[in-house]
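To whoever is on call:

I kicked off a structure prediction for a single chain this morning and the downstream step that reads the tokens threw a length-mismatch warning. I double-checked the sequence; it's 142 residues and nothing unusual in it as far as I can see. Pasting both halves so you can look.
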Amino acid sequence: MFIKVEPKDWMMHSVFLYFSDERRDAEDTAVRKYLSDHGLKPKREFAERVDDTDFDVMYFGGCYIGGGHLQTIRKMQETVVEREMLADEIRQVLGGSASETVLDSLVEEFHPQTTFEVDDQGRIVVVMDSASVERSFARSNS
């Protein structure tokens, strides 16, 4: 899923949520559930093709979904991306030797204490205590 915000007249904006059936992202189900649980219905739904990928698009008025709801959705998306990046980093630290179950457990354990920073080239990098990850992995295998 990705979010696009476009300005409108009179200091207003439109919010578009793009979901792809071809390329489902981890947060898609959670975001759709959040919208349903909070009774948030799009003004319009339509299909759009972007960069050779078909998307189902939900269009919302910015005032309707803005503020707290949009921030919550953005945070859900951010958390999923962070967890995916952390899992990749842990895989590298452990040389790919952790099962998916153990990897999920380590991500759960270390996500709260991991930071994500922007490097000199504008890329997001994972900053974590690799030694602590290795110790925790060793404990889980003993």
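Update from on-call: the warning came from a stale cache, not from the record. Cleared it. Sanity check on the structure: The chain has two domains: 1-66, 79-142.
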